[in-house]
Write a structure and sequence with these properties.
Blueprint (H helix, E strand, L loop, with lengths): L7 H5 L5 E6 L19 E6 L8 H10 L4 E7 L3 H8 L5 H15 L8 H17 L2 H8 L4 E8 L6 E7 L2 E2 L1
Parallel strand pairs: 1-2, 1-3, 3-4
Antiparallel strand pairs: 4-5, 5-6
The structure holds zinc ion.
Length: 173
């Protein structure tokens, strides 16, 4: 097993600078958008199907309001199974369906835009950020410069990871 060390300060508590909301998809590398390898205490990670803030809202708000992270990254990726499932709309497992409906209703207002999978991935990232900025407390942190929200698109369709910033604080790039 790899040796991972912890300083006494880190044992006493975490103060990560960045929180990341990233898809659970096993093809997506967790620290893709940063330059560093994993070091304990640096990144607060929320992974779920479809890199959604609405299905893990408590964890995301914990990072923002209790850990006071300086940056929140939302990372969508090519060929996302959750986006494909939303487009197909025929999920039979009730619990999965519930999670899908939350994304559909809270993020897409009950109606998916007319897009292919990868376009929907990008739209989903934009809308997740829009959703967060509707919250007054979060918007104020962003306006004061105490929190930066960045959206990323992780594309592996060409055989290697290509990561681009597609949104900063609600501004599409
Ligand atoms: Zn995915």
């Amino acid at each position: 097993m790899r040796e991972i060390s912890y300083s006494p300060e880190l044992i006493a508590g975490q103060q990560p600078r960045i929180a990341v909301v990233i898809c659970s998809d096993s093809r997506v590398c967790e620290y893709c958008e940063t330059d560093f390898e994993f070091h304990p205490g640096e990144i607060f990670v929320v992974r779920n199907a479809g890199n959604s803030v609405v299905t893990c809202e408590g964890s995301v708000r914990y990072a923002i309001f209790h850990l006071h992270v300086k940056e929140l990254h939302i990372i969508g990726h090519s060929d996302c199974g959750m986006m494909k499932a939303l487009l197909a709309g025929n999920e039979s497992d009730e619990t999965i369906k519930k999670e899908m409906d939350k994304i559909l209703n809270k993020i897409f207002d009950g109606k998916l835009p007319n897009k292919d999978v990868d376009e929907l991935v990008i739209e989903n990232v934009h809308r997740q950020i829009e959703y967060l900025l509707k919250d007054e407390k979060i918007r104020k942190l962003v306006e004061k410069g105490e929190l930066v929200i960045k959206g990323f698109y992780y594309n592996f369709r060409n055989g290697k990871a290509e990561i681009s910033v597609i949104n900063i604080n609600g501004k599409k790039l």
